[in-house]
Input
Amino acid sequence: MNSEGLHLHINYLGSSGVILNPEQAATLQSSLVILQHDHKFHRVFFWGKIMGIKGDYFIVQGCGNDEMVDRKTLYSSDCLTWGLLPHATTAMREQCSVVKGRFIGDPSHEYEHIEIKRIGEGDDATEEENTIMIKEEDRLASVVVNIDEDVAMVPRGAYFKTPHGTVQMNRMFEGLSVVESGKLQNYFHFREPQKLKEKSLLEKADMDPSIDFLDPISEDIPQGRSYSIQFERGSGLLIIRSLLWLGMMFYHVPSSKQFGYVYFGTGEKNKDLPFML
Output
């Protein structure tokens, strides 16, 4: 969700439970302007809020020239003081995946995980316990990256890929029509494509390489059933909700440049999705 006009954009998702009190909205609006200036970000986005037991984390992202790759994530508990989240490596994400349950709300909190390794074979085998300490700050960084990779999305045509390979916002984008905005194939995952290389030359023949360089969310498994799509305010507002990460919501005002996504949840993946369908 773009930080410009944050107080207006947040209202699009008010019916979905995305609410900031007046103090938080005003503090965020001014704080993000300072954040953008101090870090020399090209643009700043309000990513959302992860709710913990003792406190909540407000998350923002700042981007450079390449809006998809050149991104940094910051967090705060009071919308004033911001800390930079560490880069979530593959090893860090695998290690943090063993932590279950709600966030505590304290970035210095450490989870204790005991790994049991089996050494040897047969009757001579022994078990060795290895205690691993996992910082909540690392878990927070991992969850944000996981959510972005799984369900962060943009409308088709909102971004384009330059001949140099950088991804930038398309200033010519005027929004999807009411009819086109109701189709999941017109929304793309905002991450490096994973399925595009698998497409045949025949499938790529009708694609525009400058704007069709991402994976459509309609191909997520189970196909067409990982999201709920709904029009509100007549046909004046479209909202897509993720069923995999409950709390991730995307909005688009048809025939306009207004779109964005935000996450308001506990940071827990819905592993019961296959049983809900």
